[in-house]
Amino acid sequence: MRHRRSLEAHRCEDPFPRGRAIYEDASTVVYEVDGKEHTLYCQNMCLLSKLFLDQKTIYYDIGGFLFYILLVKSVVGGRLELCFAGYFSKEKTSVERNNLACILVLPPFRGQNYGQLLIELSYELTRLENTTGGPEQPLSSQGFHSYRSYWRRALVQALLGRSHAAAAYLRRSSRLMETHTHRWDDSQRIFSLGRLSRLTGIRIEDVLFTLEDLDLIQFWRGRHVVCIADETIQKVVSEKRIQLGHRIDYDGLLVGCSNDMSDDMSEALSETGSEDLGDGHETDQGDSGEESQ
Length: 293
Prior knowledge:
Elements: H1 4-9, E1 20-24, E2 28-34, H2 39-50, E3 65-76, E4 79-91, E5 98-100, E6 102-105, H3 114-128, E7 134-135, H4 141-159, H5 164-177, E8 189-191, H6 193-200, H7 204-213, E9 218-220, E10 223-225, E11 227-228, H8 230-240, H9 265-272, E12 283-285
Parallel strand pairs: 5-7, 11-12
Antiparallel strand pairs: 1-2, 2-3, 3-4, 4-6, 8-12, 9-10
Helix pairs in contact: 4-7
């Protein structure tokens, strides 16, 4: 604004930040804001994002959306201040299972992985709800590259047993297999595409796309299978320059924990000798590189 009196006239007197904190780490805080409760605040945020997003179309009818506000911590004059850096929004109820409708990181904060933090947080919230989801389609070119980067990282970590949910699932599976006649060892990991989807929160069609994109899946005997050793995955990680590791600090989540493994898994294991393959998709990973019999 050109004049201070204009700035003062538009100054918001309501408390900042709004909503409830759902995530906090050493450098950032994320608040959840209901578009119905803080209508003007969320409308102004949508209008702000229009300056940077050409495809932004919803500005006023935002009562059915939740907004997740990213604030970056800074110390000014010995006092902690929170600076608005970006946000993502999602529908409260989406028949298409969209877990993200719009995402924005302001230009001064780009290149610092804040976009990946918001994407990862959106999937963690989805997983905490014991469901799967994905971004609203169609994706922009930049959005597609951001999501492909996240999908690759999340699925590779799940296949290696390095994600929190996958590690818990593998520990539980190993204990159940100890009492079963099916051969089981620590180097062997069995997933269905449905299980990978539930562990990561990623829609199964995006799981399938990513595995095909990484050339980690084949169609064999009427089903999709992954049959690889750890060194093969590490080779893919090196060739595709996939940066492993989590962008969010799981100790900073201020919301409930999800159920990493459904109660009926024990029954499924006892009936099949492995994970339930009723969806017709299987992935098998072991040092031998051969499908488990």
